[in-house]
Write a structure and sequence with these properties.
This protein is mainly α. It folds into two domains: 109 residues; 251 residues. Keywords: Membrane, Transmembrane, Transmembrane helix. This is Coiled-coil protein. It comes from Legionella londiniensis.
Amino acid sequence: MSAIRNRLTLFSGNLPKVVNEENKWIFTDALDDRLLRQFLAQYQSLDLEYRAHCAKLARDLLSGEQEKIKEGLEDALILADLLERIYRDYLNVPREANRFLKDKQFYRQILSAQIKFQDDAPKKKDWGVSSSIRNITSDFNPLRLLSIRIRRVLLLITPLVHETSAYRQWFKEMDRFAGPVLSYFAWMFFVPRLANNLIMTAKHLIPGPWMGREEYDLGLAYRFWLQLQRRWFELGNDTAWLSANMINCFVMVGALAPYALYVSLALQAFDVIFACLRAAVDINRMHKLQKQYEALYNQEHLLENEKKDIRAHQKFLKERMAFEYKRHCLRISNTVIIFLALSLALPFIAVHPVIPLIGAIITVVTALALLAAEQALEQKKPVDSVTHIQVESSLQFGLFRPQPPVNQENEHRADHHSSFENV
């Protein structure tokens, strides 16, 4: 038995059969509410496990080792089956459900020469509003940061030049328009994503025609806990930034304007704590998964080839963990540097006008460096999908080369619609 099936069996107590005597795929039909609820609590770990397995499967597909490929495709199909049902029926996230449905169709197309499959449930309608808002927020965040921080640099240059200089006159005229625009933009930027998350959370808490039976039967408390698992970081982050920037925009004006620095500094300290908390949650989840595989490896009844497969799977899990660890370290380092740079503007530190200017310049350089570092890190991201591999290339392996069928009416065809993943 493969490493993935061994772990799922250990967790669930009794994993259903995958293929019956007639060589028909029966795992999907065997997924009842009891079994799915067992895996629901750890769906994020399953997602991580699936991504790591895709990296291993991509290597196996290129290696040409037919037995490994067949077992790897079946394992990927098992995880995709579980995750597709969880996202479709219990979390009601059509975008993710359709992504796993597309992956399943890819695996089935390759395995269809050896295994018989039934048709899948139809795709759920996905309006794409949540993913569009999340993508736009992510794309425009560097622009928000740079525009606000560059204005701060220009503002802090003014005390260093003569009062009658052309620069002061230019900045005064420019800031009459740019100042209010950026002050409003600073808090309005967070409204769409926060509103979307609040609406989506309410949608999963309040019963209605949009809620399926499986999700309703979970109960209000469990549904709320699942939504917090999915949205806690964005809800906390956006609430804090929206509130603080609104205070700076509407309250810390006039005589209170100097105190806006303390609000921004407190917000940045919150950002450091929140980034560390997010890293701790994600890394702890990954370590728990590794510990489960380590405990599985130490079981005496396992065969030598099963232990070898566990070690191979752990290797790809470690690669994924290393990537996530670097990404979290990058984000934490960024928040700490920004906090220290802002601290240079505190009155007891800023004994000369050039000191807060240095801090402001550091924030701009940090924003640019973070953008470049994230792009460089993304280039080293482990493979987390194999659907980009040409099916025709995969079918070259003798095991998967389809024989001329007597009746092709029930042959399953893959759906090649593209999909986009989501922080």
